[in-house]
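U., I forgot to send this yesterday:
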Amino acid sequence: LSASGFVFDPVGGSSFTANETGIAVLRMLQDGAGEVPQIVERLGREYNAPAAILERDVLDFAARLREVLR
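Result:
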């Protein structure tokens, strides 16, 4: 994960670019925040957004990660 959000999977060769929120989620995962509720809570403090919307966005992002990094 680069500072600009570029993500490369050296095993599968896939790559993508994450937006600001995606970068935040990936950084949280790198820091050990492995559960959705924990990530949603941290995003809520940072972005002051409703938990339901953040949870949906985190789950959507996780689904996209699974698709890209297969």
